[in-house]
Amino acid sequence: MRAPAKNYHHSMHPLDNVIWKALTTKQVNFAEVNGSARRFPVEVTALGAFSGSEAQGYKDLVSLLHPGEGVTLFLPEPSVPPDYLRVTRDLALLEMVHDGSSIPLPKFDFVELGNADSVEMLGLTKLTEPGPFGKRTHELGTYLGIRREGKLVAMAGERLKIEGYTEVSAVCTHPDHLGKGYAAALMSEIMRRMLDRGEIPMLHVLESNERAIALYRRLGFKDRARLRVLGIKRP
Description:
Elements: H1 18-24, E1 32-34, E2 37-39, E3 48-50, H2 54-62, E4 70-75, E5 86-98, E6 111-112, H3 118-128, E7 143-148, E8 151-162, E9 165-173, H4 182-196, E10 200-206, H5 210-218, E11 221-233
Parallel strand pairs: 9-10
Antiparallel strand pairs: 1-2, 2-3, 4-11, 5-10, 5-11, 6-7, 7-8, 8-9
């Protein structure tokens, strides 16, 4: 007996299918569109999504990909893409939302990061792998960093935005500077700015990243949903 076709259209919570929602609302100006599929430009971030039937979604999505190019999806349940796509990652992902508790005051000096810092930001994310990051990811929102002896050693910023919510993203610290509280301080400042704008901070983290999850829970984040992060590539 054939399994029923999956459909990713119906939503009960504002954060359901959040990449799709971002690309149809507050970040529609970044959207590359084909039928039921949307994605960010690859140099901005590797994220994409579809709405409606899964079969049609993959078909529409592959047309947005050049040969050898990939995209990352956040799905509500495991999915097996069609044979014309290659799976590059399939991992358990936790979506967390801030509970509104008070945020500690940051105790470090920050720098605002932008175009001039793009190469260093790419280097730090390549070293620490906080998730998809491109040379234009900083265009999605505010990115803050901490420098020591002129070098960027920690950063955090904003990525997905929908009405009422903004995602904390690219939280990373150089391995030589762990344990100094940089990530918590950067996140606190990013979150404080979100709350001042009336937005609820949220984030995504691999379920296997216990160190990061412990930090996020200390900062007032609560589990909202368990998802799959699926990386696919057009051969």
